[in-house]
Design goal:
The chain contains 20 helices and 28 strands. The protein is of the alpha+beta class and 739 residues long. It folds into six domains: 124 residues, 3-Layer(aba) Sandwich (Rossmann fold); 144 residues, Topoisomerase I, domain 2 (Orthogonal Bundle); 147 residues, Topoisomerase I, domain 3 (Distorted Sandwich); 114 residues, Topoisomerase I, domain 4, CATH 1.10.290.10; 60 residues, no CATH class; 87 residues, no CATH class. A six-stranded antiparallel beta barrel has the order 9-10-14-13-12-15. It has a four-stranded parallel β-sheet with strand order 2-1-7-8, with helices on both faces. Strands 18-19-20-21 form a four-stranded antiparallel β-sheet. Strand 20 and strand 21 form a beta hairpin. The protein is globular and about 95 Å long.
C-alpha cells in the first residue's frame, strides 16, 4: 500500500483510549493501542544472565507479537510514528520496546499527556521529546530484580514448602504484613471489662457512658495490652458492680446531676485530592470496591477522557487546575464556599515522584457524565466531590462535653457525653470524611450545671478487648503506602497475587485471612530471607530505583549489590538462596503450632503439605495422627474443642438420616466429605455407600444434614434441552458447579 506522507501512526496503551482520541483527531491519524506491555522477560532460568552485567532477554508476548505485526502493517501507510504511552517508567519501557521491535525507518516522536482531552493532546504534540532511557532502565532494573527474586526464592519455597508456592520482591513483604497480623490475633488474650450506658429522658435524648467510679477512671479497651494485662492505673469494673449501677439508675425517678459542661470550637479541614492509593482506600470504604475493580474503573474513566492520569502519588493539583476548581466551587456553591487560600499547593513526602498532578475530573462542570455504568458513575462522582472539597472552606462548629454525676452523695459515679454541632458545613456539604462519627451533629438539650437529668434507661455492657483487625485490601494499601513498599502502579498487582495464592476472605466479608500455606511460606522467608523482607530494605530499594530513573549508570551496581551482596552487611540473594537450599529442612517449615494435646503431650502442628517439593494438601498432625484441613482455615475460629474432636475422630460424625439411611461426615486424606449409608445400611439400589465432597462455602466444622443432602442428591436434573430434548444435569466437580 502506498505511503501517505500526511498520515501519522499514533500509539497509546489502552484500546478505550483509542476510541476517545479518535473523536477529536482527524483522518490523518491511525490510532492503535499496545494493550499494555508487548514484551517481557520469560519465566525461565537463564533469562537474566547474572555473569554478563545482568543482561536480560526480552521476548514478545503472544499478544505482543500480534500487536507488532499489525503495527508494522500500519507503519507502511505512515510517514511518522507518535508514541503516546503513559508517562511513567512502565509507559517509557513500552515506548522503548515499540521502537525496538518495530524497527521503524520513519521518524518517531515521543509525547505524553496527563488527560485524554483534545487540548492536552494537541499541546503535547507541540512539545515532543525523546524516549527517556533513564526511565526505561529503571523499569528494566525493577523487572530484573523481580525476576531474580521470583526465580531464586520461589525455587526454595517449592522445594521446602509446597510445589505450587511462589515469592516476590514486593509481594512477600506484603504477605509478611498479613501473616504477622494474623499471628498477633492468634496470640491475643482477651480481657473483660464493663461499663454502663444511660439514655436520658430529655428532648432530644442523649447517651452518656460511665467513665469514673469513686474518683478513679474506669478501664476501657485501650488500658489493656495484647496479653490481657492492665497497663494503666484505672479501675476494672466487674459485672456485679456494673449491674448494680444499672439497677439503681433503672429505678423510677432516677436521675443524674450535671457536674460540668465544656464547650470548645471545632474545625474540620478537607482531605487532599485523590492520589491512587487514597482512591483505592476510599473506593473500598465507601463503594465496597476491591482494589482490582477500583484499578479497572479508574483506568476506564481516564481512557474515556473523564479524569486525569490515575496512577499518581502527588496530592497536588497544578496552579491552573486549582484556579479552575476554585472557580467551579464559586459557580456551584457560592464564592463564600471557596477557601481563602490555595489548599494543597505543595508536595509533602520524601518519596512523592510528582510526575503527574492529583486525580481530578477533566471537566469540572460535569458532575454526572452520560454513558457510565453505575460503578463507574459512583467512582466519578466521588472523585468530583473530593476534588471540589479540597479547595473549599473548612467546617466550623462546637463540641460540647457534659459530665454527669450519680450514686452516693451524687458523685460516686461519673458519666460523660459529647456531641458536635456544625454552624458552617463548609466542605462537608460536598464530601464528609468516611470515618466521621455518624452521630456528629446531634445536639444536646439546654443544660446547666446542677440540672437533674432524668434517666430513661440504663444498661450494663460487657466488653472484651479485641485482637488487631485483619487487613482489608484498602487498609493493606494504606499500610504499604505508609511503609513505602511498592508504588501506586503496583498496589493492585500485589494484592491480586496475594489473592491468587495466599489470602482469602469469608463470604460477604472483606478481611484478608492467610491460608495455611501462607503461614508456612512466611516461616521459610523470615527464617532464610528476613533481610530481603525487611521493610527498610524494601523501601530503600524503591529509593534506589528512583535514583536509577535519574541516572541509568546506577543500574549495574544496584543489581550487583542485590544479587551478589555488598561485601558488608548484605550477603546478597545468591548466598541466601544457596544457604537455604543446603540447610533448611522441609520438615521444619510447618505453618504453625496449636499447643499440645492435653492427654498425650504431643505437639499439635499444622503443615502445608505432606510431600515437600510437590503439590499436596494441608493437614494437622499430632503424634502419629494426621487429619486433612482446608488451606482456607481461620484458626481464630478453630477452638481447642474442635481441634481435639478432629484429632480424636476415629470414625464418622453422624449428621442424621436421609431416606431411612444414616448420613455421616468423614475426614479422609483429601479433606472432609459426606457419606450416605454404611455396610449393612445402604441406600436403595446401591452396592456401596454414596460419597460427596463439600462446597468451598461449607464449613467442615459445622456441617448440617441439609448440606449433605444437597451434595448427595447430585447429579440433579435441572431441565431439558429445548433443541435436543436431552436431560440437563447439575453437577459439582473439582472446579466447582457445572451443567
Amino acid at each position: 500500500m502506498e505511503k501517505n506522507t500526511h498520515t501519522k501512526l499514533f500509539i497509546v496503551e489502552s484500546p478505550i483510549k483509542v476510541k476517545t482520541i479518535e473523536k477529536f483527531l482527524g483522518d490523518d491519524f491511525i490510532i492503535r493501542a499496545s494493550v499494555g506491555h508487548i514484551a517481557d522477560i520469560p519465566e525461565r532460568k537463564g533469562s537474566v544472565d547474572v555473569s554478563n552485567a545482568f543482561a536480560a532477554t526480552y521476548e514478545l508476548t503472544p499478544k505482543g507479537a500480534e500487536i507488532i505485526s499489525q503495527l508494522k502493517k500500519d507503519m507502511k501507510q505512515c510517514s511518522e510514528i507518535i508514541v503516546a504511552t503513559d508517562a511513567d517508567r512502565e509507559g517509557e519501557l513500552i515506548a522503548a520496546h515499540l521502537v525496538e521491535f518495530l524497527k521503524p525507518r520513519i521518524p518517531v516522536k515521543r509525547i505524553d499527556f496527563h488527560a485524554v482531552t483534545k487540548d492536552a493532546i494537541e499541546a503535547a504534540m507541540l512539545t515532543p521529546r525523546e524516549i527517556d532511557y533513564n526511565l526505561v532502565e529503571a523499569a528494566r532494573t525493577r523487572r530484573i530484580l523481580d525476576r531474580l527474586f521470583g526465580f531464586e526464592v520461589s525455587d526454595v519455597t517449592r522445594k521446602k514448602v509446597r510445589g505450587n508456592t511462589t515469592a516476590g520482591r514486593v509481594q512477600s513483604p506484603a504477605l509478611r504484613l498479613v501473616v504477622e497480623r494474623e499471628l498477633e490475633r492468634l496470640a491475643h488474650v482477651s480481657a473483660l471489662y464493663m461499663d454502663v450506658v444511660v439514655n436520658s429522658e430529655t428532648a432530644p435524648s442523649f447517651k452518656a457512658t460511665l467513665t469514673e467510679v469513686a474518683g478513679k477512671k474506669i478501664a476501657t479497651g485501650a488500658d489493656f495490652d495484647s496479653s490481657g494485662e492492665l497497663i494503666n492505673d484505672v479501675t476494672v469494673v466487674d459485672v456485679a458492680t456494673a449491674e448494680h449501677i444499672a439497677a439503681v439508675l433503672n429505678q423510677p425517678a432516677a436521675s443524674l446531676a450535671v457536674l460540668d459542661i465544656a464547650e470548645k470550637e471545632t474545625t474540620r479541614q478537607p482531605q487532599p485530592p485523590f492520589v491512587l492509593s487514597s482512591l483505592y482506600q476510599e473506593a473500598g470504604n465507601r463503594l465496597g470496591m476491591s482494589v482490582a475493580e477500583a484499578r479497572t474503573i479508574s483506568q476506564q474513566l481516564f481512557d474515556s477522557g473523564l479524569i486525569t492520569y490515575p496512577r499518581t502519588d502527588n496530592p497536588v493539583h497544578d496552579v491552573a487546575s486549582r484556579h479552575a476548581i476554585r472557580n467551579a466551587i464559586a459557580a456551584e456553591f457560592g464564592a463564600d464556599m471557596v477557601a481563602p487560600f490555595h489548599r494543597y499547593a505543595t508536595q509533602k513526602g520524601k518519596h512523592t515522584q510528582g510526575a503527574h498532578e492529583a486525580i481530578r475530573p477533566t471537566k469540572l462542570s460535569v458532575q454526572s457524565p452520560n454513558g457510565l455504568s453505575p460503578r463507574q458513575a459512583a467512582m466519578y462522582r466521588m472523585i468530583w466531590q473530593r476534588t471540589m472539597a479540597s479547595q473549599m472552606v473548612e467546617a466550623r462548629g462546637s463540641t460540647v462535653t457534659v459530665r454527669l454525676a450519680g450514686g452516693v452523695s451524687g458523685g460516686e459515679w461519673i458519666f460523660s457525653a459529647s456531641g458536635t454541632t456544625y454552624t458552617r458545613q463548609g466542605f462537608r456539604a460536598v464530601y464528609a470524611p468516611s470515618n466521621e462519627d455518624d452521630d456528629a451533629g446531634s445536639p444536646f438539650p439546654a443544660l446547666a450545671v446542677g440540672d437533674a437529668v432524668p434517666v430513661r434507661d440504663a444498661e450494663a455492657k460487657e466488653h472484651h478487648t479485641l485482637a488487631p483487625a485483619r487487613f482489608t485490601e484498602a487498609s493493606l494499601v494504606k499500610e504499604l503506602e505508609r511503609l513505602d513498599i511498592g508504588r501506586p502502579s503496583t498496589y493492585a498487582s500485589i494484592i491480586a497475587k496475594l489473592r491468587d495464592r495466599y489470602v482469602w476472605s469469608k463470604k460477604g466479608e472483606r478481611a484478608l485471612i492467610p491460608t495455611i500455606t501462607a503461614f508456612a511460606v512466611h516461616r521459610l522467608l523470615m527464617g532464610s530471607f528476613a533481610s530481603l523482607l525487611d521493610y527498610e530494605f524494601t523501601r530503600g530499594m524503591e529509593d534506589q530505583l528512583d535514583l536509577v530513573s535519574q541516572d541509568a549508570t546506577l543500574k549495574a551496581a544496584t543489581l550487583s549489590d542485590f544479587f551478589f551482596g555488598d561485601g558488608e552487611e548484605n550477603p546478597g540473594l545468591q548466598t541466601l538462596v544457596s544457604d537455604a537450599i543446603d540447610n533448611v529442612k522441609g520438615r521444619d517449615m510447618y505453618a504453625l503450632t496449636l499447643g499440645t494435646h492435653p492427654e498425650t503431650g504431643d505437639v499439635i502442628t499444622v503443615r502445608a503439605g505432606k510431600m515437600f517439593g510437590k503439590s499436596s494438601s494441608p493437614y494437622v498432625e499430632c503424634g502419629s495422627i494426621t487429619k486433612a484441613l482446608p488451606d482456607e482455615t481461620a484458626f481464630d475460629d478453630f477452638t481447642t474443642e474442635k481441634l481435639l474432636a478432629l484429632l480424636s475422630a476415629g470414625g464418622p460424625q453422624l449428621l442424621g438420616e436421609y431416606l431411612g439411611v444414616p448420613v455421616y461426615l468423614r475426614v479422609g486424606p483429601n479433606g472432609a466429605y459426606f457419606q450416605h449409608g454404611e455396610k449393612g445400611a445402604l441406600p436403595e439400589g446401591a452396592t456401596k455407600p454414596r460419597t460427596a465432597g463439600l462446597l468451598k462455602s461449607m464449613n467442615p466444622d459445622t456441617p448440617s444434614l441439609q448440606d449433605a443432602i444437597q451434595m448427595l442428591e447430585l447429579p440433579r436434573v435441572v431441565g431439558v434441552d429445548a433443541t435436543t430434548g436431552e436431560i440437563i444435569h447439575g453437577l459439582y466437580g473439582k472446579f466447582g458447579a457445572y451443567l
